[in-house]
Design goal:
Layout (H helix, E strand, L loop, with lengths): L1 H6 L1 E5 L4 E3 L7 E15 L5 E7 L4 E2 L12 E14 H10 L2 H26 L2 H12 L5 E2 L3 H8 L3 H13 L3 E4 L2 E4 L1 H4 L21 H4 L7
Antiparallel strand pairs: 1-6, 2-6, 3-4, 3-5, 3-6, 7-9, 8-9
Length: about 220
């Protein structure tokens, strides 16, 4: 933990600033402290498709463990404060704490499982159900989703018009409240919210855990 406090660099990113491009080779881990980022791709026609929006606490940059480039663009959705952990520091942590590798592998396996679930949802769920699942995944800790109907349509695999109709039906049913570029989930929905950003084992999350990748996800520590 002392290494993280000493070596991590706190940086501010402005809205729509590009953190990384698809194909870039990662050379750092990033811990989101405030704000949010979009994981997206740009089509050949120039359209940006947002696949997921991430809020704190979340860590990304695991591609560097496999020496693989980023598979999507990472773009700031809301003004972002983040802790940057250089690759050299990550290597030192892994050498000194080999068990951290298993935590990272556990995280990667959960990401693959989550993507498989989302792929299954596209094939089996109605648009209204898909919209609700996406909102559960991207909302912040207060249940707020700062996303446009068009962005949400891209994530849920529907048209903007049909997505807007699905949102209105969900609002009428009492699941959410619609505001300008803000969708607020109701308390009954928050209780069942999907917590998949940074899963850790019970041992990793225990008080006093020394696992560095759990510690760096606890953003109040920085």
């Amino acid at each position: 933990m002392d290494v993280l406090r000493r070596e991590a660099v706190i940086r501010k990113f402005q809205e729509r600033e590009v953190v990384a491009r698809e194909g870039d080779k990662p050379d750092f881990f990033m811990v989101l402290l405030s704000g949010s980022v979009d994981i997206c791709r740009t089509t050949f026609g120039g359209e940006t498709i947002v696949y997921r929006r991430l809020y704190p606490p979340v860590v990304f940059g695991y591609s560097l463990l496999a020496a693989k480039p980023y598979s999507a663009d990472i773009i700031v959705a809301e003004t972002l404060m983040a802790a940057i952990i250089p690759l050299s520091v990550v290597k030192r942590i892994l050498i000194d704490n080999p068990e951290a590798i298993f935590t990272a592998l556990n995280h990667l396996s959960s990401v693959v499982s989550s993507l498989s679930t989302e792929n299954q949802e596209l094939r089996t769920l109605s648009l209204k159900e898909r919209v609700m699942r996406v909102l559960e995944r991207i909302c912040d800790n207060n249940g707020n989703c700062r996303v446009s109907h068009e962005e949400l349509a891209n994530m849920a695999g529907g048209t903007r018009a049909n997505t807007s109709r699905a949102l209105k039906n969900l609002e009428i049913s009492g699941y959410l409240e619609l505001r300008r570029r803000l969708i607020s989930l109701k308390n009954m929905v928050l209780k069942a919210r999907i917590e998949a950003n940074f899963p850790v084992s019970a041992a990793d999350s225990a008080p006093g855990s020394s696992n560095p990748f759990f510690l760096c996800s606890m953003t109040q520590k920085f």
